[in-house]
C-alpha cells in the first residue's frame, strides 16, 4: 500500500495533505479497476461501505497509515502541512528551551540566598 500511496502523491502532490482526498482517489481507482468496473461517483454511501466491508477496497485506516509511513521514508511525498508542522515544532522547542532556561536561572538565584 505504501508504494500505491507514494505513486498517488507523486502524481498529485495535493493528496499529501488530505487523507480524505487520498482515500477517495485510491478507492475510485480500485473500484474502476475492479471486475466489473464501478464508478464511485454513482455509488451510494451504503454501496461504498459494502465494498469496504467486503474487502474490495482498501481500509481507510490502512491508506492513512501508509501515507504517514510513506512520508516518513520518502521526503518528496511530504506536503505543505508537514513543512508547517515542522516549523511550528521548531518554535515550540525554542519556547520550551527559553522557559526552561528562565526557570533554571530563577531557581539557581533563589538557591544562592
Feature tags:
113 residues, mainly alpha
Structural commentary:
This protein has helices spanning 2-11, 19-32, 45-53, 60-73, 80-111. The chain is mostly helical. α1 crosses α4 (60-73) and α2 packs across α4. The longest helix has 32 residues, at 80-111. The mean pLDDT is 92.
Distance between the termini: 63 Å
Beta-strand content estimate? under 5%
List the uncertain runs: none
> What is the helix fraction of residues, given as a range?
55-70%
Listing every helix as H and every strand as E from the N terminus to the C terminus, the arrangement reads HHHHH
Shape: elongated
Number of helical elements = 5
> Averaging pLDDT over every residue, what do you get?
92
Q: How many structural units, i.e. domains? A: 2
Structural class: mainly alpha
Task: Give the strand tally.
Answer: 0
Rg over CA atoms: 22 Å
User: The biggest beta sheet, please?
Assistant: none
List the helices and strands and how they pair.
Layout: H1 2-11, H2 19-32, H3 45-53, H4 60-73, H5 80-111
TL;DR?
It is built from five helices and no strands. The protein has 113 residues and is mainly alpha-helical.
Amino acid at each position: 500500500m505504501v508504494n500505491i500511496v507514494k505513486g498517488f502523491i507523486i502524481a498529485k502532490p495535493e493528496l499529501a495533505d488530505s487523507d480524505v482526498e487520498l482515500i477517495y482517489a485510491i478507492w475510485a481507482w480500485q473500484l474502476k479497476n475492479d471486475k466489473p468496473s464501478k464508478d464511485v461517483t454513482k455509488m451510494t454511501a451504503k454501496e461504498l461501505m459494502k465494498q469496504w466491508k467486503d474487502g474490495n477496497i482498501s481500509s481507510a485506516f490502512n491508506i492513512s497509515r501508509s501515507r504517514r509511513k510513506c512520508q516518513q521514508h520518502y521526503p518528496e511525498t511530504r506536503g505543505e502541512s508537514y513543512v508547517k508542522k515542522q516549523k511550528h515544532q521548531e518554535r515550540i522547542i525554542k519556547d520550551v528551551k527559553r522557559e526552561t532556561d528562565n526557570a533554571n536561572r530563577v531557581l539557581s538565584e533563589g538557591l544562592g540566598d
